[in-house]
Each structure stands twice: as structure tokens, then as C-alpha cells.
Write the C-alpha cells for this entry.
Amino acid sequence: MEVTEAVAIDHGLKKEEFSKICELLKRTPNLTELAIFSAMWNEHCSYKSSRKHLKKMHTKGKQVIQGPGENAGVIDIGDDDAIVFKIESHNHPSFIEPYQGAATGVGGIMRDVFTMGARPIANLNSIHFGSPQHKKTRNLLRGVVKGIGGYGNCIGVPTIAGQTTFDESYNGNILVNAMTLGLVNKNKIFYSKAAGLDKPVIYVGSKTGRDGIHGASMASATFDDKIEEKKPTVQVGDPFTEKLLLEACLELMADNSIIAIQDMGAAGLTSSSVEMASKGNLGIELNLSKVPCREEKMTPYEIMLSESQERMLIVLEKGKEDHAKKIFDKWNLDFAVIGKTTNSKKIELIFDNKKVAEIPIDLLAENAPIYDRPWKKTKLPQKLKFDKDEFKFLKLSDCLKKILSNSNISDKKWIWDQYDHTVMGDTIQKPGGDAGVVRVHGTNKAVAASVDSSALYCFSHPLTGGKQIVCESYRNLISVGAKPIAITNCLNFGNPEKEKNMGEFVECVEGITEASKYLDFPVVSGNVSFYNETKDKGIKPTPTIGGVGLISDYQQMLTMDFKTEGNLVYVIGKTDGHLDQSIFARELLNEKKGPPPTVNLFNEKNIGGTLLDLSRKNLIVSCHDVSLGGILTAVSKMCIKGKKGIKINLLKGLTNKYEYFFGEDQARYIVEIPRVSLKKVIEILNKYSVHFDDLGIIDGNSIKYNDDINLPIEELADAHKYWLKKYMDN
Amino acid sequence: MRSSVIIFPGSNCDRDMDVALKKYGFKNQMVWHNDQSIPKSDLIVLPGGFSYGDYLRCGSIASKSKIIKSVIDFANSGGLVLGICNGFQILTETGLLKGILQQNKFLNFICSNVFVKVKDKQNKYFKDLKKDVLELHIAHNEGNYFCSDDELKSLQDNNQIAVTYCGEDGTESETTNPNGAIKNIAGIFNNNKNVLGMMPHPERMIDKYLSGEDGSLFFKNILDNFK
């Protein structure tokens, strides 16, 4: 086939990009070369629209061993232990084929982690679907959950936490973000930077098939009516092979045979080989006739673009081939020496004894286009003036039940019951809490992790929204007694070629950066997913933050369930009653306008630090952060989990009870305090000038407030627990 | 007491089982599926996981693996063989235990705490166990035990039903049956009661910070009965 501009455009390249390729090469590329360019220059691999802004992110910290730019980020958790973690999107494939899309998303992120030498110890996910009323939602949800479970359960890594939301903006583009944490000795981390000349390049894992060809370029375009035709671009996962690959790689990593290792993810063999060579400032020569193929007559073009799963590329020390082969033979995996490192600084491909492609590596990596796309600032919306007379018609207890059974607040047990969350025997906080917690095997330490996003806030005002999610992640970790250490982010946005979408991205990133810098909560890894748009309708901006924290003695972990009758319940942090963008405004007043709650970073840091102090001194016995749905929602969850009631005090100087109970002001927590600790708690709160309210006392089996609320916990639990199950059974 | 845990490709509860056995004082060793023989043992454990990807049928390929002949010989000579979850599935595939494990009734994987009633204490696993109801943990997609009427009758007649799903108070009902298993069966013995297969995972319930501690009673009891 002759390569023309039209062929290039078919490969997702822009007209100008094609001219640039011809100019850089000083000739027209052949079809295989064009395919390589299209794979490396697409948005998914090149970050061409986002790179300029991502550079500004706060990525350094005392505990950061590896920031963005590797397969995953790495943080130091003491005693030579390090945690490797990253979150990644698999949105486009999951919408086309939910089971395989989600499954391979989980498989891909686990490979990113064990590529670095870490054994995966926990999985998390953040999944977002269209309106529950939309005809596709139920099947997509079912397929995604089965896919995540099908893969993670088989590998034997517990899924310890997650987030699920519904919003009509995801009707045509669901989001599936998967996160993995791994544990590694900090002196035995493996990187993707190749080094040394004439070193053997090894292919291991599954055979290469025709699945997933053009996967990365599919994920770099918007959807249209012909979406179903794209099914063949979705990869098919085989968790069993991945489990073997995991064990074989870790076995080989026990000694010093590996120089560099990279999993074949998006754009398969192309991006893995180019990245390894590029980082090592080397050339690479691959003989494609030696690549193990599962289908007949595969062409170089297909081999280079295949996104078949469960494959790794390794640069090995010379002379270690036999040793390595023995390990992969034991695990019944393919092993082939397919090339070597060179000093040509080019990628050179041989097939049937002929050279079929030759491209200087820097054209694919450093010289990939970078765009400074035009973007538009989002103005802070005017604060709404609610007509409080209207509230009088709303009964507090009805409001509460409605909020607890809201699709975005209700219990997601139906989902996490399908994920093995206890395998590996170290899960000490299961899904359904503020964060999942796993012990660091054989030690007193535990690692907490949480995933969060707030699309409504980010849509209303991206800058504030960006800051808010980082804070929310921070609070979730503190709520389980963990010191927040670092984050990974998955930036899901619409079409960057539109000024509004690009603006949302830029300002969310700005917000994330500001908050993570202030809170000393650096970003160590992440991924960007643009073009979440179908027929011109984009998603609400949905940056997802995966936060990781450390509990140095796992016996000090906190949970949210109320423990003992007679203990006191305090709200820590000040409540102004911000109702704009709240669930209350949306659900009960049908009001979608207004700004998100203000984020005060000083308060977040000060109150968070104070809470950690309280938990380290064993002065509080339960803790939960106040987020969506406000104080009353948070307290109800603590009651339901603990199967205990609360008598809420009549609050002095309260301006409006709806604002107080349902307002979504930030930087707040609810804590349970044993009476004997109260004096000390108040001393510490005063010392740090932290505002607190004496909310009530744990008592009986119902929530009671004045004459307004008298609800048995069981009734609340019914409202909260069964929405999703009933929805899925329909 | 010496134990051996067999590792098949795809096993994923092998380490958890190793940790649990050692915690209670078993001298445990790990045995690779391709090995010819099993070192001298008093107990052989087939752990949970997805042996050989559970392709074809759960446990089916593992039941034809190289090591399995030694396991069968050991069982036939009266040795204790314990299969948990995928291990139970493998034992039914080898024919050491009757019946089959089908997909769960509601077609979903289930990961959850369950209560099981100990139905028989005239065996080396449960003899003198202080509790009648244990809180254990299940995590499976194919745990729906089924067998023919004749097989069921012989299981009942010979007291080969080991544990059944029940409520906290020990009542067996449809609502306490998580996967649709016939007669709420969660685990069974062979004729001689030296081979036990069960879906619940005692190795995930060995300290109070995990899902619970009743698994420790199970392991301690095996040791006590050996002495």
C-alpha cells in the first residue's frame, strides 16, 4: 500500500503531522513506519495536549523514590519497603466491550506495577456510568464489574476500595479507572531504561495476535455512530497467563539478570521498545520473524501494533538467556530473543531477512508534537440565594432517606461482593470504608488507599474542583488513621481541541497542583484520558485521585462504625452550610447551579494533622470525613455500620438546620470520643485552633433530633443498602 | 505435624495457607505441581485459586496433573487431604470426593463472611471442636455443590457432610445459602473421612484484624487431634 496523506489521516494523524513526519525523515515513511508514528504520536502515548501542563505538577517529596515518567510511581515507607502504585484509564475499550475492556484495564495496571519488581498487594477502581435510566447503564455496569472481578480475583490480588458514580454525562462514555499498589524492596526496583550495547532484547509472555490493533489510536479519538465496529480494537485478557507472568518475572528479578523491563501496554511492542531505547539513549534492532505469534501470516505492521495482553519486553544481561529461559519454561510462557540494543539511536526492524523499518528514536519520542492548545477559563459561578421558606415543606427525615438511597451515595456492596477483597490475608479494612487498608505482610505497618473524584464540583469550577479532590483523598486517608504520602491521578476529560474542555483540564491540573503542593501530597504517577466524547457530547471533567498513606502501627487503624453507647460524637471543622452543588440541592430542590464549596488548604492541613495527632494518641475510636450529603449523611453511615443510634443535640446558634445538616463545606470530620478522652481531645483541638461542634451521643437504635427526626437505624440501612441491588435485579 | 501445600500454576491462596499452617505450628513445605512425589507429610493441602486458569472446568486440568497421583495414593492410604475452594473442586474432579461444584446460583462471584455448621465431629478435622458454628469466609464463583440423589443419600447415611451454610445461630435455610448448594452443603468428606473438601477459607480467618478468628480454631483442632 502506498502511503499518502489520506492513509496517514486514516491512522489518526493530522495533515500537518504527516508533513512533519516526511520532513523529519526526509522521505515518505512506509506503511509499517507510518503505523509506528501513528502509535507513538497519538494522544494516548505522546501526551501531546497535556504535557505542557503536566510539567507543572508537584512531583517531589521526602518519601518519593520515583515520580511520573516510569511505569509507576514509587514511595518510601521505611525499613527498605517501598510502595509502587499507579492509576490508569481504560474508558474507551470498556464502553465498547465492558467485560474485556475492564478486565484488561486491571491487567494492564497490574503489569505496570510488577514490571518494577513489586508484588501487587491491592487493587482499587473508580468507575462512572451514565444515568441509571439510560438503557445501556445496567449492562455496562454488570460487564465492567464482572471484568474487574474476573481478572483481579483470578490473579489473587485483593480489590480493597473503589468508587462508583452515575451521571448522564457518561451516557456515551463510561469511565473505568483501575489502580494497583505493589510492595517492593526499595533496593530492588526495576526500571525501563535500557543500558549497554549489544544486550539481548527478550520477548516473554503470551503470543502476539491480531487483537487490539489500533487500540491506542482508538483511545485518542471521540466516538460516533459506528462505535460497534471498533470492537476488534479491544484486547482480550487472560488473567491466568498474567498470574504466570507475574510469578515468572518476580522469580527472574530475584537476581541481577535484568537491565530494563517494560510491559507491552498501549501500542504494544512499538511503545515498549521505543521507550526503553529512548530512555537509555540507545538504538534497538528487532527481528520480527522471531516474535512468537498466535496467528498465521502476521505482518510487521500487525506485530508492531498488536495490543495482545500479558507480554513483556526485557533487556537482559548477556549470557543470562539460558537462565531466564529456564524460568519462563517452568511457568509455561513464551520466551524469545528478538533483538539487541545498538548504538544507532534508531529503531530498526527486520522481517524475513529484510529491513522493513528504520526510524531515529528521537523522532518518535522527543520530537513528537507538543501542542499548546487554546483554552478558556471557567468563571466561578455566583452563589445561589436559596429561598429558605421553600425548605419548610421538606421533612428532614424524608430528605435524609432520599439522600441515603441516592445512586451516588447508596451502598455499593453489590459491586464489591463480587471482588475478592480478602485474598493474601492482609486486608484489614474492606471496601465500604473511607479507604481500603492492607497490612505490609509480616510487619506492623499498613498501607491505606482511596480513590476519589468529584465531577460535579469540577464541572462547576475546575480550579476549585481540582483542589477539592486532592483534599478529599487526604481526608479519606486520615479518617482511617493513615498519614497521607502521595497520589496518582487519572485525568478523564472531553475533547482537548475544544477550548472549554481544554480549559477544564488546565484548571483542574492547576487545582490539583496547588493542593498537592500545599498538603505535601505529591503526584508520583498518572495518566490522561482525553476524547471522552460521543457525537459532540463530552463527559463532565473527572480527574480521579488515588491517594496512598501509611499507618505505622496497624493496631491504630480507625474505622467509621460507631463503637460504644454513651460515647460522644463531635463534628471537627466549621460548618457554614454550603448548599450549592450539594446532593441536597440537586435531589431535593432540583438546583444544579452555583459554585462548589470553597477549599481552604490551611484548614485541611491543620485539621488533618490534628486528627492524626488524636488518632496516634488513641483518643478517638471512630472517624469519618464529611463529604457528599453533609453531616447527617455521614453520621447515618456511621450509625448503619456500627448498628447504633445517635441522639443529636439541639444546636445553639444554628441559622438553618438544612444548611447545617446537608451543607457540603470542606475540611470536616465526624469523630467518636470516649468520655474519658474528652478533656484531652478538647485541649488538643484548642491548641491547634480547630473548630468543633458537640453533635450528640451514641444512644439506642435510632437517629433522633428534636421533633424532626426519629428514624430506626434499620430503616435507614434499608434505604441505604439496597438501591443498587434492586436496580440491578430489575 | 508435617504438611505440604501443592502449588499449581494459577493457585493463589498457597501463600495464605502456608502462613496459616506455620502460625499454628505445622512444619509446612510447598510442593510444585510438576514434582514426582510429595515429601513425607501428615497433611496435604490443595489451596484455593484458579489452577490452570480453571479452563475447561474448575479443577479439571489440575486433577490430571503430574503430582495428583501421589495425592490420590496418599489419600487412599488414609492420609489427611484437605482441599479448600479450588482444592475442593480439584478433589471432586479426581473422584476422591463425590459430586460437583457448579456456578453460583445468582451467577456472581461472592466474597463474603459466612457461618457454617459443623455436622460431624467423628473425624480428625473436627473431633472435640469447641464450637458447633464457625464464622468463615468464602470467595468463589463456582461453589454451588451438587450431587445425585443416590450420592446425597450415601453422604447423609455415612455422615459425610462436613459443614453446611447456616445463620449465626446454626439454622440452615435458603437465606443462609449463599450459592445455591444442595442441602446448604459447604464441605464434604470421603468415605473414610480423611479427605475433606470445603469452599470456605479458614486461612483467611486467623486473626481479629482480618475478617475473624474462627479459622484458628480449625487449624488448632487438626493439630490437637494429631497429638
Observations:
- The first strand of chain A starts at residue 64 and ends at 66.
- Chain A touches chain B through 33 residues (CB under 8 Å).
- Chain A is about 35% helix and 25% strand.
